[in-house]
Design a protein that fits this description.
The chain has 128 residues and is an alpha+beta fold. The chain has one domain: Ribosomal Protein S5, domain 2. It contains four helices and five strands. A five-stranded mixed beta sheet has the order 1-2-5-3-4. Helix 2 runs parallel beside helix 3. It is elongated, with a radius of gyration of 18 Å.
Length: 128
C-alpha cells in the first residue's frame, strides 16, 4: 500500500500526516509519540480516530508539525489522521464525523487593534 498524506490544522498549528500500513508506530517530528506529547491526555487526543475505528495497530503514522502549542498541535494531528483514514476508506467518514474528528476548528486569535491594549479591551474611561 502506498503512503496516504493529509493535512490537519488548529489555531496556528499545521500537521502534515503520512499514513502507511504497519505495526501502529506513531512518530512526530522524528520522535516517538510518548516523548513528543508527554501527557497521556494529549496522547489520547492523537489516537482518538484510530481507536474509534479500531485500526490503531494496522497503520504507522508519521507527522511533521509546526507552530502552535501542545494542545493545538495534538488536535491538528487528530484532524490529519482522521482525514487520512477517510482517504483510505470513504466508509469511515460517518463514524469519524459523528465524533467530531472531521470538523476543522477554525477559531483563531483575534488581532490586536491600534489604540487599544488588546483585541477588544479598552483603556479605562475617565470622565474628568
Amino acid at each position: 500500500m502506498e503512503i496516504i498524506n493529509a493535512l490537519g490544522r488548529r489555531k496556528t498549528a499545521v500537521a502534515r500526516v503520512y499514513l502507511k500500513e504497519g505495526k501502529g508506530n506513531i512518530t512526530i517530528n522524528d520522535r516517538a509519540l510518548s516523548t513528543y506529547f508527554t501527557t497521556t491526555q494529549l496522547q489520547y487526543i492523537v489516537k482518538q480516530p484510530l481507536e474509534k475505528l479500531g485500526v490503531a495497530e494496522n497503520f504507522d503514522v508519521t507527522v511533521n508539525i509546526t507552530g502552535g502549542g501542545f494542545k493545538g498541535q495534538a488536535e491538528a494531528v487528530r484532524l490529519g489522521i482522521a482525514r487520512a483514514l477517510v482517504k483510505i476508506n470513504e466508509e469511515n467518514k460517518p463514524a469519524l464525523k459523528k465524533e467530531g474528528f472531521m470538523t476543522r476548528d477554525s477559531r483563531e486569535v483575534e488581532r490586536k487593534k491600534p489604540g487599544r491594549p488588546k483585541a477588544r479591551k479598552r483603556f479605562q474611561f475617565s470622565k474628568r
